[in-house]
Amino acid sequence: MLTETQVKTAGWGNTEVQALRARALAFFEEKGLPEVKNELYKYSNIQRLFTENGFRETELKTATDTLSLPELPFATSGTLVLYNGVFQPALSVLPAGVEVQAAGTILNGSLAAQTFALPEPDAVKALALATASEGVALLIGENVQVAKPLLVFSYTDVEDASSLASLHVLTAGKNASASVLMLHAHAAEKRFFAQQVWQYFTAEGAALRVYDMQNEGPESYTINHFSALQAANSTFSLTTSSTGSAFMRNNVRAEHAGEGCHTELNGLFMPSEGQHIDNRTFVGHMFPNCTSDELYKGIAAANGKGVFNGKVYVARDAQKTNAYQSNKNVLLSREATINSKPELEIYADDVKCSHGSTTGQLDEQSIFYMQARGIRQAEARKLLLLAFANDVFERIPDMELRAFFETEAGQRFAALYRSR
Amino acid sequence: MLTIKNLHASINGKEILKGINLEIAAGEVHAIMGPNGSGKSTLSSVLAGKEDYEITQGEVIFRGKDLLELSPEERAGEGIFLAFQYPVEIPGVSMTNFMRTAVNEVREYRGLDALDAKAFLALSKEKQALVELDKKLAGRSVNEGFSGGEKKRNEIYQMAMLNPYLSILDETDSGLDIDALRIVSEGVNKLKSAENAFLVITHYQRLLDYIVPDFVHVLYDGRIVKTGPKELALELEDKGYDHIKKEVEA
To answer: A390 and A247 in one domain?
Structure first.
């Protein structure tokens, strides 16, 4: 298929990594792209995605000096620019205590094994691992407190129907604290299939919050692999706001490697006309006294398709686990679909775990009540959608970031009713 | 101000209003009374523009416009206000955000500039005082966790904020204790002017002690079967609706 050259030309001087990539490639070649009967990709037809779009490997540009960066309504602590997955030092500014290296320089021993592991037989991730170009290792030093969010801006500029993948690592040092805001953009009218692998390591006592604003255009077909390995007493949170892309799949995995960890996963996904947005999450409680809290809210309009499949796993030794998972969805049309599949797998006996899933519609009584007060129906629906989404925004502690995500969602809701 | 001619309305094929005729002029207070199931709430819903009802015959002219052609929000813009019998709770939408959106949507409809935050707060404070609405409620979601009395006072506060020409009070007295009833009524009486009118829909005479009507209409089986001065309400209280039913059926 598309792999041979990419495997060879993706950088990676690290021979240990090369061996792991070869192993991933072998895995992919043995399994092939998953069929819909594969439980992991039950609601996302990956094979059809490839056949219909003819994604192929192309020659990728690796540098740019003309990129315009997004203007944000708030201050950031720095900017890291990726162009077709490749780090652009000239366009990047990093805060004190944060450094960048090539990913391969730190991926040795257990870090390499963890990054290239396939805990589930996921051939799509295997393909990403095997073909990914060497991205960055973003290193946040011990005790470093990055108060403002660090912007990671990722720009895709490829020929039509290109396939590309990149792999990045982020380590948060002992007792470090940081938040990362990921923004994306791409060249117009060029379809692409992009896989990004992000492996996060949070050291003891670290707190890392990652926010991904997924609002790319309909040319984007994207699969993200976000995996966190948390040392004792560390916090990891991931918030995704998915409004863009023709196809979006988030493979999210957080696993505890010590006691006292906290994991928070938040997602707002809003598929509309022609869009497919799939979230697959896994929280692995492997140690006692850890907590996790997961909230995914879906709003599907037109013929949009959304998926939430979340698994909470509690190992036999993970006593005193507190794990919550909730998925709530709203369907705005008869053609809209959301598949929800919450899963709990618990082997410990002294735990508090709950999960719930609901799917409904906007309350017509509320809409009429607002109309009777002079509020246009479209505006009333927008207010109700913002109210529905608000639980997710409330989990963003940084007020500027919260407003940023709220505004994005508000624009999306307004657009939904303008286009009718 | 409002002219209703031979209005027929059905829901799910069942005719509820069977030829309503009613004329309301500016400065007047009209009361509509009637037994359960006579069509009182249907009439208020139809006037406010609820889509569940099918208008099969007749017309409604409000200040020169064909009301039935307008969406509920346009009717509100024109100056129709419905105080709901059961105000709707809207979790996640704050009272302030809701009211400010409503006020500015109506102002936009009427060709007025939007109120800025300061002007809105000043107006809001004045109108809250009118019905003794607790300031704390402004920070809550619309009607969520409000007591029955607070919900009804909140309706009158909204009425005051939107300054309508015609206010329809749909069983505003239901679920109110005597103190809340007095506060709500006083609020309404303060809003009364020569330019606006009120249509008070009620099951009991009690409310009409406080909001004194110029006309009382009796609605029975989808028609107005009797109209009289305010004393008619007392007569109904005294003799009950059975008396009217017999009269109509005879």
So the answer is: no
Domain residues for the domain of A393 are 363-420
Mean pLDDT in residue range A246-261: 98
From the CA of A115, how many Å to the nearest CA of chain B? 41
- For the stretch A306-327, pLDDT in tens is 999 999 999 999 999 999 999 9
In a domain, A270, yes or no: no
Domains of chain B: 2-249 (3.40.50.300)
Say if residue A7's pLDDT is above 90: no
Q: Which of A253, A351, A262, A335 is nearest to A300 (CA)?
A: A335
Cα–Cα distance between B127 and B193 in angstroms, integer? 16
Q: How far is A240 from chain B (nearest CA, A)?
A: 21
Nearest CB to A374: which of B77, B93, B141? B77
- At A324 the pLDDT is 97
Question: Using the beta-carbon criterion (under 8 Å), do B72 and A372 form an inter-chain contact?
Answer: yes
Q: State yes or no: pLDDT of A9 exceeds 70.
A: no
Residue by residue, DSSP assigns A198-266 as EEEEE-TT-EEEEEEEE---TTEEEEEEEEEEE-TT-EEEEEEEE---SEEEEEEEEEESSSS-EEEEE
Q: Are residues A375 and A248 in the same domain?
A: no
For an interface test with A, the pick among B50, B52, B53, B73 (most A C-beta atoms closer than 10 Å) comes out as B73
User: Closest Cα of chain A to B211: distance in Å?
Assistant: 23
Q: What is the ipTM of this complex?
A: 0.96
The minimal CB distance from A366 to the residues B50, B90, B102 is found for: B90
